[in-house]
Amino acid sequence: MIRRPPRSTLFPYTTLFRSPRTSSSTLDNYIGIFLKDLKGKPVRQGSVVYLDGIVLFPRKRISFKIGNVNYFIRQSTIKDLEAELSIHVPSPGTIIKMPTAILYIDFLGIEGREIQNNVEQAIAILRLFKVGEIKYYSYQMHSESITNVIAGTIFTRDQYASSDKGLITRKDAEKIIKFWKKISKVLPQSYYETGNQVVDHNTIAYTRYCDAILHNGVFERKIATVVMGLESLLLKQQENQELKYRLSIRLAKIFGLLGSDPADVRRIVEKAYGVRNLFVHGGHLSNKQKEKLAAQFNSIRNFQSSILEYLRISIILMLLIKQDKNKFIDLIDNSFIDKEKDAELSKVLKPNKDIIIMNVMKDI
Question: What does pTM read for this prediction?
Answer without folding.
Answer: 0.87
